[in-house]
């Protein structure tokens, strides 16, 4: 429950998803380049179900990550009857950035 008394929705996230994402992002991480992915799934019965990880085309640096060809993402979501539930992100951060953004490790809508 939120402080306003609104019930939070349950999130179902495959246990392997974060490991798979880290494998996909490994080379960029070693090279000091950010990587982002979109958590795709369905909403039903008040539950957010992540069923796929989409790595969109992107341009990234050591401190930015911008998706390109967003229309492809829209087509993939539409073709699979999915919604974007959130995102997962890896970047090289200094100690201060890690401390400041710790609570944003997973950002779910």
What report would you give on this structure?
- The chain is of the alpha+beta class and 109 residues long.
- It has a single domain, classed as Cytidine Deaminase, domain 2 (3-Layer(aba) Sandwich).
- 29% of the residues lie in helices and 35% in strands.
- It has 3 helices and 7 strands, in the order βαββββαβαβ.
- The protein has helices spanning 17-30, 70-80, 95-101; strands at residues 10-12, 35-44, 47-54, 58-60, 65-67, 83-90, 106-108.
- Strands 1-3-2-6-7 form a 5-stranded mixed β-sheet. Strands 4-5 form a two-stranded antiparallel sheet.
- Strand 4 and strand 5 form a beta hairpin.
- The chain is globular.
- The protein starts with 9 loop residues before the first strand and ends with a strand.
- The mean pLDDT is 85.
- InterPro entries: JAMM/MPN+_dom.
- One of its GO terms (cellular component) is endosome.
- This is STAM-binding protein-like A.
- GO terms for molecular function: K63-linked deubiquitinase activity; metallopeptidase activity.
- It comes from Zancudomyces culisetae.
């Amino acid at each position: 429950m939120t402080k306003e008394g609104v019930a939070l929705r349950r999130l179902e996230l495959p246990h392997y998803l974060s490991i798979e994402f880290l494998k996909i992002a490994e080379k960029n991480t070693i090279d000091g380049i950010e990587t982002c992915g979109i958590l795709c799934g369905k909403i039903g019965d008040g539950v957010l179900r992540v069923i796929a990880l989409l790595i969109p085309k992107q341009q990234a640096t050591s401190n930015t990550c911008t998706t390109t060809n967003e229309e492809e993402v829209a087509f993939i979501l539409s073709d699979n009857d999915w919604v974007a539930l959130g995102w997962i992100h890896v970047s090289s951060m200094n100690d201060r950035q890690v401390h400041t953004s710790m609570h944003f490790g997973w950002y779910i809508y």
